Records
---
Amino acid sequence: MADSTDLISRNSKSLLRQSAPYIIAISVGGALFTVDKDIQKESLRSSLRGSDTDHFFRTVEHFGTPGPYLITIALQTGYGLLFKHRESYFDAEELAAGFVIAEGITWGVKKTVGRKRPYESSSPYSFFKSGKSFYSGHAVTAFTYATIMAKNYPSQDLSFIGIHHDLPLVPVLMYGAAALVGIQRVYKNVHWASDSYFGALAGYGFGTFATYAGKRFQNHGFHLGYLNGLMLEYAVTIR
């Protein structure tokens, strides 16, 4: 009986430890809803606003669009086809999967939640009003892309510039750029802070799922069914 009690106790503690990051993340998001209006006001009257800042954030915004996705998928697929480098193609597959998943689910969430954007409503609690604010599509796209890239390229060898140990250069750059996209959406007054935050969480989840599922399929000899995958398999077979 004592052993059973100890086992239940250990399992409960293990479950709590595993659940803690998710509980904390959701709690932070919930708290953001209560200060969304204050963050908006502070952003609009920030002394940092100006033409230079506007230009910087207009540039940053592109990281949250399909452009980086499409360019990276094309480059990695082309490299895989040209040099028979399966890993590059597999990475392109995961990016394609992440993009499709993120865009599809985000569209459904926006339609269901219907939150009004900050410039459409003075209240951050305007849900189910046919709005498209929750969650930020730019943030989810940026973080899905960043997560897949970070997980596929977790560290880089920089010995060619005299640094003799690997550094997480890609993850730092990718997540840094994605975070700036989230901030830009608030700065531009097209999203509440909680929209960007939950977009980031969703993007991380979608990116993690895409890399995990992709590698599971690939390890079992399956592919995700994209045209570029069929092209690569055909090219490798006939050569």
---
Amino acid sequence: MKKWKVFCYISIFTIASLMMSCVRESEMGNGFKKPSKEDLNRAISLYVQIAYKALENNEYERAMANVKQALDIDKNSPMALNALAVVFQSQGDTGKARETFKKALSNDANFSDAHLNYGQFLLQQKESEAACKQFQLAADDDFYQKRAIAYFYMGVCHKNNGDIAQSESALERCLGLDPANAQAMGMLASIKFEKHQYPEAKELFDKHVQAVRASKQVLSAEALWLGIQLERVFNKPDAEASWALFLKNNYPYSKEYLEYQKSLKK
């Protein structure tokens, strides 16, 4: 897998380099056809992809260098500015991140990627109401490939704001677009449990467990605590004990384990 990632990384970089060589040769009058707007946008997109892959490895300098390459082509590119804002956010420079997200959206108010990323930034800053508006704008784009993600984060925002009905609706829309979204299943299962809709909660919880295990991830403390409570409702002491042991072994200092211990004393 690592070799494949390296190959993809090198391939993207090579294509971007070749494309920009053509652009520079054209500017120098060496016989190449002047690059079209589409060619320039494609080069910007490639540099931005390299920047995001660098961020995945916490290579902030490499990410910034590639964003600069994109901005050198077009300093007002919403795609490049959005990437720059994400780099600033990753570095903890919240002031510059906010300013740059706004600049990206001022250049293209319909750029759904920027709405999604800005919403995630605002959610991180605990500005849930403002974040919800950004996620809604992204989700309203019928052709946006990340609509399911936008709806998921809308669910998170609305839940943070105490609007459980809107949260439930957004999470259901998310699962309608992406039935395998494990995070949405888990959060919706929790909401169903709180509404005493136990069969629905159990079905969603079981699907959440399957999806998490299929991705070779570990269940969260929150999910394990929900599993314990669901098994109690359905009077399954062996299953309850199994989830409790898992919680104790993996999250012994979590608030969920403390809640479990308190529940035993009632």
---
Amino acid sequence: MAGERGVGTLYVVGTPIGNLEDMAPRALRVLREVDLVAAEDTRSARLLLDRFGIRARLTSFYEHNELAKLDIILAALAAGDVALISEAGMPGIADPGYRLVRAASEAGFRVVPVPGPVALTAALAASGLPSDQFLFLGFLPRRPAERRRLLGEVAAERRTLVAYEAPHRLIATLEDALATLGDRRCCVARELTKRFQEIRREPISRALDHFRAIEPRGEFTLVFAGAPEPDPVGDSHILERLEAEVAAGASARDAIGAVSHALDVPRRRVYRLWQDRAGRREAEQERR
């Protein structure tokens, strides 16, 4: 399975995020045929490979040894094919695998993705929130001040927000999200594809109440609705225009029609505001 021009190919192989039934046949074939597997965690990688009867040669490649291992893996690529796998999911997504991909590409080796499960897209697909555009924040900062700063920076972002979080920081993160983003809708996905999978779709405040009452466990993916579209025409402005039309001698019906047309807002909205105004005035008169 040699790569082009007599050099090896780096295969970026997705592996299950929990459920082993998600292991793709193509991924299994590649892992059986490569000369070396570079794994974020060799212990979990060996368990995975043994489960499928694969006796591949393993080497570690993780956040704290990637610089030392780059030359070793590039040398292996000069002699044959290498597969890169993450501890779970797709390599290069919120893990140091991208550094090996970049180094291999810059060295002239062929890089081929073998797609597999990804927690962020699984949670996004199950969230019920818009997915045509989204912003992935990766693992949120561990320090509270840095986490709040990041959430504050994206508070006005219209796109759906996706992030990973550890169980022991979940409550603090939801508290920060509520304070910075407001009580918008969210999806908290726990232990995706695993036996105790839990997917909650609700306002941030309700998710916070739920997890405050229990001890959060497992791996979490958080999906937050984007910031709501600003209302270009506020209620107060509509009422001011209505008051002006009526003061100029227009009937309520004509005033509603004129304001609806002038401001390009639904007539029913203008009518509702007029009714609310009339109700408030009537209540004030009764109190007098």
